[in-house]
Amino acid sequence: METDRMVQVVLPGIVAPEGLEIREGRVPEAGRGQVVVAVEASGVSFAEQQMRRGRYYDQPPFPFVPGYDLVGRVLATGEDVDPRLTGRRVAALVKTGGWSSHVVLDAADAVEVPEGLAADEAETVVVNGITAWQMLHRQARVRAGQTVLVHGASGGVGSVLVQLALAAGVTVIGTASARHHDALRERGVIPVDYRSDDVPARVRELAPGGVDAVFDHVGGRSVIDSWHLLAADGTLVAYGSASTRDDTGSKQWPVLKILARTWLWNTLPNGRRAHFYNIWAGRALAKDRFRDRLRTDLTQVLTALHNGEVSAPIAARLPLTRAAEALRLAESGTVTGKIVLTP
């Protein structure tokens, strides 16, 4: 690839994965307080799958460049940025724009990656790792000796959350399809088959007094069941509505229903708490605080990855120009681990 040329993947509208377009242009320059990053890895997550359908809660208008997170080397720094950043590997959470060979970032949004971590390794825990860490430690505030339920324990966020919880001395019950149960047991997770088991009944058998926290990305009826599985003083953290992925109609309504339920549940005098986790919460009102918290949490996760406390498998590595194939593979539900685009 020419060093002065930029390649991007564009989502032009509600299209099949094959409808993604490739766009080329000149590499942008860094403005004041900015850096240009030569992207080495960007992930394919559930967010891009929903954006392709026009179903992501606050996606921008079409057309746009998708790509929720990225890892790469700083190619150039703008005015008021330490020039020593040049050449360093950084990670960033961007929501859109990551499926590009080059990205301009505010320098304050770039988090340095520890030496010794490969770009694709680090990429697997950017959005998934921040999400898992903040739900576990900032919202549920788990403690050693507690028991939690993780829905989708073998998924992108769930698999990282499980490992972070186990590292914190927490007992983990995890829902997954039967083919993932042996791998979960090897990690120390108590697996529950969400396809064939009566999940609420099985969890009550395993934790008769209720669980201390539930992490639910499923939405719909599952959120209600999750609330009723909590112990006294337990915490529900909802963070998605995967059960409505293929629905039509309002993309906001499934999230608004969960928000309404969490508000109502929090008015009840039973000591339980409910949250809807939004990774971007607080950014508009307190950008510096948001950035500091994100930097702290992502550094914790990257350090855990570097130390071997957390691992996230890579299902496939594909070049940026094969983004359509990568998205189709991610949506197939046939792979385990993160699909990484490597410009």
Description of the structure:
The chain has 343 residues and is an alpha/beta fold. It is built from 10 helices and 15 strands. The strands form 3 sheets. Strands 3, 4, 5, 6, 7, 14 and 15 form a 7-stranded mixed β-sheet that branches. It has a 6-stranded parallel β-sheet with strand order 10-9-8-11-12-13, with helices on both faces. Strands 1-2 form a two-stranded antiparallel ribbon. Strand 9, helix 5 and strand 10 form a beta-alpha-beta unit. Helix 3 packs across helix 4 and helix 3 crosses helix 9. The model has no long low-confidence stretch (mean pLDDT 95).
Task: Give the tags.
343 residues; alpha/beta; 7-stranded mixed sheet; 6-stranded parallel sheet; 15 strands
Mean pLDDT: 95
Question: Count of DSSP E strands?
Answer: 15
Radius of gyration: 20 Å
The helix-and-strand class reads alpha/beta
- Helical proportion? 25-40%
Number of helices: 10
State the order of secondary-structure elements, H for helix, E for strand.
Answer: EEEHEEEEHHEHEHEHEHEHEHEHE
Question: Could you say which overall geometry the principal axes of the C-alpha atoms support?
Answer: globular
Major sheet description:
7 strands, mixed
Distance between the termini: 9 Å
Unreliable runs: none
Percent of sequence in beta strands: 25-35%
